[in-house]
Amino acid sequence: MEDQPLVRKAVRGALEDAGFGVVEAGDGEEGLSAARRDSFDLAIVDIWMPRVDGIEFLKQVRAIHADLPVIVISGGGPDAPLEVKAHLAQAHGAHEVLFKPFEDDELMAAVDRALG
Q1: Which of 13, 50, 67, 100 has the fewest CB atoms within 10 Å around its CB?
Q2: Which residues carry this modification: 4-aspartylphosphate (predicted)?
Q3: What whole-number distance in Å separates Cα of residue 98 and Cα of residue 61?
Q4: Which residues are within 8 A (CB) of 100 and not within 5 positions of it... i.e. 6 or more apart?
């Protein structure tokens, strides 16, 4: 889940190049709808998004898929220092936090760790 189309496209490309199937969502509300319809092996979630942000997604998705591995990505935002949001994401069950910009190999290493 990522509200920035270019970042979403880059993440999708890296995952597809590695052989993963990808379902995209532009915000947490779309992501929660997808999580209610289907099961997933992993979610990659931006923190700052419109409607339902990444932290709220983490809180709500646990009721749907309690063991879903989640990687949080963020480049910062308006309401709190990035480190505070990263800590909050981990407190709500994020497996890892990647700070934008990140390289494809960093993303794929995080995916490998999350899928263990």
Answers
A1: 67
A2: 46
A3: 20
A4: 7, 73, 74, 75, 76
